[in-house]
Amino acid sequence: MVDTQQAPDVMSAACPSRPTLQHLTGRWGALTMAALAHGTQRFSEIRRRIEGISDRMLSQTLGDLERDGMVERTVLSAIPPKVTYALTPLGVEVADRLEALITLVEANMDEVTASRESYDATH
Q1: Span 39-56, mean pLDDT?
Q2: Which ranges carry the HTH hxlR-type domain (predicted)?
Q3: What tens digit of pLDDT does each residue of 63-110 get?
Q4: Assigned domain for 31 exists
Q5: Cα–Cα–Cα angle for 66, 72, 74, rounded to 5 degrees
Q6: What is this structure's pTM?
Q7: Number of folded domains that form the chain
Q8: What pLDDT score does 113 carry?
Q9: Tell me, what's the pLDDT at 23?
């Protein structure tokens, strides 16, 4: 349960925002959010979009993001059952900011690459 008397502070070890931040910024969370920013998708569509993610990791990531209120899982009655994933309103807001960060990083990869090469040459 969240302590309502203390404001969230991600720098505090006890702050419940830490796990949520980890889910969003971990290796697969940001990529999953970015994939879902393009609309409702089935599990296999997300997996194809995110190269290198295993079924297990995608399932765990989607579960974490659903628990945090970022993703909504919908089971449609069909044979076989069809499951879709979509961002919640909060998830859309967060994904917009993550996509801005992704765009910034991608736009500056020449600078990042040069910095890495310089660092590696001197260390």
Answers
A1: 97
A2: 15-113
A3: 999 999 999 999 998 888 899 999 999 999 999 999 999 999 999 999
A4: yes
A5: 125
A6: 0.87
A7: 1
A8: 98
A9: 95
Share of the chain above pLDDT 70, in %: 96
CATH number of the domain bearing residue 71: 1.10.10.10
- In total, the chain counts a number of residues equal to 123
Q: Residues 27, 12: contact at Cβ < 8 Å?
A: no
Cα–Cα distances in angstroms (integers) from residue 70 to residues 33, 37, 51, 114, in the given order: 8, 11, 21, 35
Q: Is 4 a member of any domain? A: no
Spatial separation of the C-alpha atoms in residues 10 and 18, rounded to whole Å: 6
Tokens of 50: 């995110």
Three-state SS string over the chain comes to CCCCCCCCCCCCCCCCHHHHHHHHHCCCHHHHHHHHCCCCEEHHHHHHHCCCCCHHHHHHHHHHHHHCCCEEEEEECCCCCEEEEEECHHHHHHHHHHHHHHHHHHHCHHHHHHHHHHHHHHC
Inter-residue contact 85 to 62 (CB < 8 Å): yes
Task: Retrieve residue 45's tokens.
Answer: 């569509």
Could you identify the residue written with the tokens 């059952």? 81
